[in-house]
Write a structure and sequence with these properties.
about 400 residues; alpha/beta; Aspartate Aminotransferase, domain 1; Aspartate Aminotransferase, domain 2; 7-stranded mixed β-sheet; 3-stranded mixed β-sheet; 13 strands; about 15% strand; binds pyridoxal-5'-phosphate
């Protein structure tokens, strides 16, 4: 066997779970992202989507994407620093800055790029990064690229953050980075307290609002707006891959910071601009969010209703304060069993296991969209209860598949 093939020959977990018929990943969707999708030719209820406002099939967004393709073609064909900067990108940046309430913004190829480009550009070798221990993978990767001194504070724990800040040299540049809405468990960062500490210890704050944008705050302006702390939050990062129904990411901040990022963030200047259709889609999405504020209301109504139904069925859903509702399962294998069985029962939810969550704290990530109906939520919760019963009964009768997983 050649060296590369040899190296990964014992990575057999996926095959193992496929053989057992409980491999839940890379499900093939034969339809667009909506409250119902087609998997294996069958209609399945989708409760795993990040399209919280249900905009991926909105006629105005689709029309904007089509028009952009007609006018500009399919790709930006280069870095925006050089040949790939379209007037659409510039228009989008102005709109994003206005939307979140900051003087300037810049667009990256994805939200992941926004974090891995921005964090190392803002904090260097002699600086300090303080991140929540449950930060999204892109924040962790960005921190690794920064070569700064990295400290992880306990999840949403201000005592832990303050203890670290107290030890720092007051003159050292310190950047605190936190998710606004945590992507797996749907809880919200105490941004007000983080900013209080940042002011006390002279630190800057960067907010990853991938999941907050579109749903939190007045008009969906995000978690900083929810706390009334837009000015005090130094950098706001967002993505187009959730509520904004496309692909791409951005950061918004003061003019000088954005100007610096536009000329130094390597993930921005050494990567191509987003395709015209994506830029046009997001411009249209920002308009639709303004024109149809009832979507935000609907996603919250659905969230409250789903949480009530899940609690009535005895599901433990943690501290979620958003349309992301974690259903605690515990073991990885049980989570795979539940997710696979649920799909067979016509409901898709996301299985989330270590390292995305702590060991033995695997969850089913159940997420709501504005466009779900009450009947769809009822059906999903009913099937969750049915599948839990089946999985538990089977487990009582025969031992768990393989303890090592
Ligand atoms: C908190 C958070 N930050 C960043 C990202 C990356 O966003 P994108 O999908 O645009 O790369 C995600 C996506 O999962 C996320 O959940």
């Amino acid at each position: 066997m050649k060296t590369l093939q040899q190296r990964f020959s014992d990575f057999t977990q996926p095959q193992f779970f496929k053989e057992k018929g409980i491999y839940p990943f890379y499900q093939v969707l034969q339809s667009g992202q909506d409250t119902e999708v087609i998997i294996n030719g069958r209609k399945i209820l989708m409760f795993g989507s990040n399209s919280y406002l249900g905009l991926t099939n909105h006629p105005k967004l689709k029309e904007a994407a089509r028009k952009a393709i007609d006018k500009y073609g399919t790709g930006a064909s280069g870095s925006r620093l050089m040949n790939g900067n379209l007037d659409l990108h510039e228009e989008l940046e102005l709109k994003l800055a206005e939307f979140v309430g900051k003087p300037a913004a810049t667009v990256f190829s994805t939200g992941f790029h926004a974090n891995i480009g921005t964090i190392p550009a803002l904090a260097g070798r002699n600086d300090v990064l303080l991140i929540d221990e449950k930060s999204h993978a892109s924040i962790i990767e960005g921190s690794r690229l920064a070569f700064s001194k990295l400290f992880k504070f306990k999840h949403n724990n201000m005592e832990s953050l303050e203890k670290i800040l107290q030890r720092m040299d007051p003159d050292q540049f310190k950047l605190i980075v936190t998710d606004g809405v945590f992507s797996m468990e749907g809880d919200v960062a105490p941004l007000d307290k983080i900013i209080e500490l940042a002011e006390k210890y002279n630190a800057a704050v960067m907010l990853d609002d991938a999941h907050g944008m579109g749903i939190m705050g007045e008009g969906g302006k995000g978690t900083a707006s929810h706390f009334g702390l837009t000015d005090e939050t130094d950098v706001i990062m967002g993505t187009f891959s959730k509520s904004l129904a496309s692909i791409g990411g951005f950061v918004a901040s003061d003019f000088n910071t954005i100007n610096y990022l536009k000329h130094t963030a390597r993930a921005l200047i050494f990567s191509a601009g987003i395709p015209p259709a994506s830029a046009a889609t997001v411009i249209a999405a920002l308009d639709v969010i303004k024109e149809e504020p009832e979507r935000i209301e609907r996603v919250w109504t659905n969230t409250r209703y789903a949480k009530k139904c899940l609690a009535e069925e005895g599901f433990e859903t943690g501290n979620s304060a958003s349309p992301i509702v974690p259903i605690f399962v515990g073991e990885n294998v049980k989570t795979y069993e539940m997710a696979s069985l649920l799909t067979k029962h016509g409901v898709y939810v996301n299985p989330v296991v270590h390292p995305a969550v702590e060991k033995d704290k695997a969850i089913l990530r159940f997420s709501l969209m504005a466009t779900h109906t009450k009947e769809q939520i009822d059906r999903a919760v009913e099937q969750l209860a049915v599948c839990r019963k089946i999985v538990e009964n089977v487990r009582i009768k025969k031992p768990v598949l393989d303890e090592k997983y």
